[in-house]
Design brief:
Keywords: Membrane, Transmembrane, Transmembrane helix. InterPro entries: Toll_tir_struct_dom_sf. It comes from Diacronema lutheri (Unicellular marine alga). This is TIR domain-containing protein. By secondary structure, the chain is an alpha/beta fold. It has one domain. About 65% of the residues lie in helices and about 5% in strands. The protein contains 20 helices and eight strands. Strands 2-1-6-3-7-8 form a six-stranded mixed β-sheet, with helices on both faces. Strand 7, helix 9 and strand 8 form a beta-alpha-beta unit. It is elongated. The structure holds zinc ion (ZN). The site of zinc ion has 7 residues, from helix 13 and helix 14. The site of zinc ion (ZN) has 7 residues, from helix 13 and helix 14.
Length: about 500
Amino acid sequence: MSTLLAEAGELLSAHGATALSTIATGGSDDANSYRHSFSTRVIHRFISHSWRDPVLLKRMALLWESNAGTAFAFGSAAASVSAAATRAGHLPTLVLDYGGGLVNVIGLSSSVYAFCFLVSLAYGHRLARALGLRGMIVFWDKACIRQDDERLKAAGITHIHEFIVASDRLLILWSEDYFERLWCNFELACFLRARGLSHVNLVPIAATRHQVAILLAIQYMSVAVPVLAASGVPAAISATSLDAVFACSLMPGGLVFGYAHASAIVARLRLQQQAAAFDARAARCFCCDHGHTSPETGATMACDREFVERVVQDRFDGGLAQFSQIVREALPAHVDALLGPALFPMPIWRFAIVYMPFVWLGVDIALCSPDAGVRRSNALEFGFGFGFLLTGVGLNGLLLTAVAARTDLLASATRRRLFLALGSATGAVAFVLGWGKWDAFFNVPSSAPPRRAGETAAVCTAAAALPVLLYAGASVGGRARTAAGPRQPAQPHEATRSIALL
Ligand SMILES: [Zn+2]
């Protein structure tokens, strides 16, 4: 490894990799990006991406990959301090007295979590750097290969497969464009042969946008109902229309949530479709697209395809055809394992992280409500609330995937737009209904007594069991479909086994 980097590093002016901060802050100025790279013996991630994708989305995906754990820890720590300070009376609160003994004390912890999470998601790597830590070291082509010197640039490109095989993991920033790009396929082929598919991470770049949207939607809903309740509007209207007013106040957040969910399902379907039909021979590259003549200078360009085919042939006896077959056979199941069942289009732990503002809202209420029975009841409700929301997500996913399966959703842009509109509507309804089923704010006219803890626990447990069953069913169902589906050949290809053993 050190020899490899020494050789290649010499050619690259001793620059081998870059810390994440380069990508998060630079990227537009090529020479400036290269200045931030440094020589290293360790590359945690080789970033494989299409140059045509929006830089902002790729940055967000990398920030999530690098900083989400820190952001969750920092957000949780700050919210804990906030909850303790609220309990001790040091922070302002909103006291909602519904009568009949039901008093909810709304604190700031929910907003503190959301704010600190987002700030450390965006700047966590800078904090690590200030503390003398380099954090995640990545190979990012634009920053690690000289862009302003043609000789060094060519040297970097011809050595790129050596950096790929020297990296701990390959991180694919997937977009619909990814598998169509020849160089992306080249990077996957080199890494697949060297380290195997189990070391490949794949992140749909739009997913981070969805996750942040859901976080903000939940934060909005955590704030909207208390603010509305405190505004005096509910007192002026009848108890029967109260639910409708609260439901309407939740709708904007629900629509955002539903849209993000539907978008993620569309992206997931596209990913599955592309993985199952993968053929590197159909991939495109800049030189062939432009007839091997530079559109800027008119000079003749060497063909990248010849270089790529030669390197892939060295690694796979059957060349691009054999590599493609291996990907078709192994990648769909790997994607399922990485991203979870398609009904929940993001890994469950990511959903849990973005759901936390709601939990901290419950913690404030549970800690600060004056009555012990109400405290217990609220703690249970908010604790199990995740189950209710997950039920809403899962049922919405079931409906949407059923619609997608029957309409050949990916056939046209119009169908996709209609699907996103449907997803927004059903997501909002699922979310608001899920919220309304358990939320202490709902169905509590001023004269109603507070729910008893035992009653609440029974309802919450039953509701929490449903999403667990749903998730387990979706996981098992997904595997069964993969095993029995027509894409799975009766005999695994010989090369698939060799990849599995690597
Ligand atoms: Zn070419």
